[in-house]
Design a protein that fits this description.
The chain is of the alpha+beta class. The chain has three domains: 146 residues, no CATH class; 71 residues, Phenylalanyl-tRNA Synthetase, Chain B, domain 1 (2-Layer Sandwich), CATH 3.30.56; 76 residues, Immunoglobulin-like (Sandwich), CATH 2.60.40.3080. It has nine helices and 15 strands. The strands form four sheets. It has a four-stranded antiparallel β-sheet, covered by helices on one side. Helix 3 crosses helix 4. The protein is flat.
Length: 318
């Protein structure tokens, strides 16, 4: 009885997230897939969510998410218009929503039949899952003596519980959520606490294929379909998205004491940032040399401002 009571309390908390906010035509047209990705992301991050084991994403949850995004969009400020239309910030998939990589044992006749037919295997337990969720065989090949099949569906799904179900079928081995890596960049996040949705837009820059070096955030909350701008945090895009580092050279790099800066322009105003965007050395006017001996060992970004512009250079402190 106590377990059921706890479950009902958790369910009540998650149901409290649902909103009946009207969905704008702009969000309906441009952010429906984002809403699906955001719902899937919350399910993966919240094992206690009553829908965490649901393969089909709840239409109500997706609609609720679009309503909350609409509340922010409807603020209609220049800042909001820029986030949605100028920078066109969307959610980056944290894990794939519609593709699976399945290790298959070809000593089973039903596996060979499926790979040949690409749709029907003759094994009801497998065929029912493939049919129910609209999967098709994309391709397959052998890797290290094992056959790996790649399946694709046009639906957006919560694939983790589906992978768990498939792994119970004899003849199937390891199953991975398959998809193309998209790197990093502009992103959109949403979290819920009690009756409030917290929505964060962010712009990332600086070596984003490997994980952006810098990121600026814009924070909003939505309560009862009313959105509020909470402010910005992180790096400042205009200050740090400077000219190419190719235009400025620093040495030695790695450095232990003095950094030499070339070309030796008349005067630089130098700031040093950690890779998570915290300024660790402020406002030093330098002319060709910078003393970094006081920094802890690690990687940093040197931001140089002069009459010629702003430059960014990454360096390592020994």
């Amino acid at each position: 009885m106590k377990k059921w009571f706890i479950f009902l309390l958790v369910l009540k908390g998650f149901l409290a997230q649902a909103s009946d906010c009207p969905v704008s035509s702009f969000i309906e047209t441009n952010y429906q897939n984002d809403a699906r990705l955001l719902v899937q992301r919350e399910l993966l991050q919240s094992p206690a969510d009553p829908y965490a084991d649901s393969i089909i994403l709840s239409d109500d949850r997706v609609q609720s998410c679009m309503g909350e995004l609409s509340a922010v969009y409807n603020l209609g400020t220049n800042r909001v218009d820029s986030l949605f239309t100028v920078y066109s910030i969307h959610a980056i998939p944290s894990v794939p929503c519609n593709e699976l990589a399945i290790e298959m044992d070809t000593t089973y006749s039903w596996v060979r039949d499926f790979l040949e037919d690409s749709l029907v295997s003759g094994l009801p337990a497998f065929d029912s899952l493939v049919y129910r969720y609209g999967f098709r065989l994309h391709s397959y090949f052998r890797v290290n003596g094992k056959t790996v099949a790649y399946l694709h569906t046009n639906q957006y799904l919560n694939l983790a519980p589906l992978a768990d179900s498939l792994e119970q079928i004899e003849g199937l081995g390891n199953i991975e959520l398959w998809g193309t890596a998209v790197g990093d960049g502009p992103n959109l996040h949403i979290t819920h606490r009690n009756d409030t949705a917290f929505i964060d837009f962010s712009l990332g820059w600086g070596d984003c294929p490997a994980g952006c070096t810098f990121r600026q955030y814009w924070h909003f909350s939505v309560i009862d379909c009313q959105a509020t701008y909470l402010g910005t945090s992180g790096d400042r895009y205009s200050a740090l998205a400077g000219k190419s580092a190719d235009l400025v050279r620093i040495y030695p790099n790695p450095a232990n004491g003095q950094l030499t800066i070339e070309p030796g322009l008349s005067l630089f105003h130098a700031d040093v940032y950690s890779l998570n965007g915290i300024r660790v050395m402020e406002g030093r006017n330098v002319s060709g040399m910078l003393d970094v001996a006081g920094l802890l060992a690690g990687q940093y970004i040197l931001v140089l401002s002069s009459t010629d512009g702003v430059y960014r250079v990454k360096f390592t402190k020994l």
